[in-house]
Amino acid sequence: MNWICEQTELLLTDYLDGLLTAAEKHEFDAHVNSCARCTPLVSSVTHALSTLRALPQLEPSPRLVYNILDKTLGPRETVTGWAAVRAWLRSTIRNASLTAAFRSVPCS
Hints:
Elements: H1 5-16, H2 22-34, H3 38-54, H4 64-73, H5 81-104
Helix pairs in contact: 1-2
């Protein structure tokens, strides 16, 4: 097989994750060790991954998902107090009504 730089770039993550077959890994290594373009690429990506893995893992904010949704979809209307209770009751009753209606439809 004649390995080319594009294959190295395409399969780099599989190589780093150990997902290549033995034959693919042999061809990958042979190409990278003899290619002036791919040797520094694989080296720099390997170094970057090692550096990232050495960083301490951070605990995400409990509001991370909500903050992302607010920034991407826009802020939601916040309902508190009795308005929140009424909204919850309405959704519960609506869901119960839909469930009852669904169950009353005969199956064929």
